[in-house]
Amino acid sequence: MHQIDRIYINGAFATPHGSEWADLHNPSTEAVIGRVRLGDAEDARAAISAAKRAFPVWSRTSKADRIDLLHRLHKAVAASASAQFAALQEEYGAPFAFGDWLAKTAGNAFLEAANTLENYEFERSIGKTQVVMQPLGVVAAITPWNANAFFLCGKMATAIAAGCTVVLKPSEMSALQTQVLVEALHEAGAPPGLFNIVNGRGDVVGAEFSVHPDVAKLTFTGSTAVGRSIMSAAAQTMKRVTLELGGKGPQIILDDADLDAAIPTAVASGLMNSGQACIAGTRILVPESRKAEILSRLKSEIAKVRVGNPKDSSVTVGPMVSKKQWDRVQGFLRSGLDEGAELLIGGEGRPDGMDAGWFVRPSVFSNVTNEMRIAREEIFGPVLSVISYESEEQAIEIANDTAYGLQAFVLSSNVERARAVAAQLDSGRVQINNAYPEANVPFGGFKQSGIGRENGVFGLEAHLESKAIVA
């Protein structure tokens, strides 16, 4: 049994002031595997105070000093990859290939930030005016449970590169993964107070981060509902905010698509991270002229998907993170049928032969209209909705008819045609034939998928304020 009873403040592990404990579960077995002691508002204030004290010195460091630390942080996190992978599987149930990728790449954010910083100029001239890009101050980061180390490293790296100090609240459901990461980060020898990490509840620690006057910026990845409340609270002290929120990504299969390539790609994009991904393409838009063929192929492809123990390298869909999330997915499966959609494959309950674990049957609904709940709300599970269209113009209209706009996909044998469609989609990122973007390109959403951008220069400048010095 794991017992996590320390938080990280001012460069050292400390006992929380908070006394509440939360159970940790293995979602593959439903067993309790440990407990975590949660920080409270006093712990949040202590973390902010440490970051505030560290800011004046860190904000005046040279690019060379920051780059050196970013490289040390990367090296420390990379060395912990095997331990991080084991924690991901035990505590989150990440499928083998996805978990392995997460564990090996989480620390790369520090390298990417170092590379961005290398070529960034904090001062520039406009006529006779000197424009200085100045670090904001203390940055508070709140991260979700579906890619714990990936989000923590990403938000830390950019803030540190900009000259800010950081307080972080990871999901309390990821405490084992956080512990592995913090132990690795500690080995890098960062200045005390540069980063501070408090396990705690969102409505306690996260709430304190959101309202505290000494926090200059808040960056959050999670649900749109929580993002709204954070934005409202942050507005009281005019905090800068970056919000990366929910998604309901469309995958437009154009009528010229090579289905031998498009169907496996669509399924992989829709079921990534067991469907627990804001960027997953869960609405599959298909031309009416090829609907029957596409549905047949989708059914065959989904039937091949392996669900089960994430330690099995052939498994691509693991469990839902919690009983609450499992129940949520089951509710959407019932809702789809109640609204008149046709279940092509899958359905309620666990996959055949499984009597334990929060596993879901990968499911596809056909004859879905874009007004149904399964087409409009983020399910966060391995559930896909197929919507047909008559023309390219209608496909674009359906794709954009959503409150979200985080990531979209276009599948076509003609890349130039796909680019023309992509240009008309209201989405922060559009992937053509699932080509993966470069590391430093901007990431963020349109509409209710968020505010602001992360990664590269875009993410760096989100932690800086421009100051004009006129002589």
Automatic annotation (TrEMBL):
Q: Name one GO molecular function term.
A: aldehyde dehydrogenase (NAD+) activity
CDD domains under this entry? ALDH_CddD_SSP0762
Instruction: Give the catalysed reaction(s), semicolon-separated.
Output: an aldehyde + NAD(+) + H2O = a carboxylate + NADH + 2 H(+)
Query: Which of UniProt's keywords are assigned here?
Result: Oxidoreductase
Task: Give the PROSITE patterns listed for this entry.
Answer: ALDEHYDE_DEHYDR_CYS
E.C. numbers: 1.2.1.3
Instruction: Cite the Aldehyde dehydrogenase domain residue spans from the record.
Output: 22-469
- Family affiliation: Belongs to the aldehyde dehydrogenase family.
PANTHER family annotated for this entry? ALDEHYDE DEHYDROGENASE, ALDEHYDE DEHYDROGENASE-RELATED
The identity of this protein, by name, is aldehyde dehydrogenase (NAD(+))
Q: Which organism is it from?
A: Pararobbsia alpina
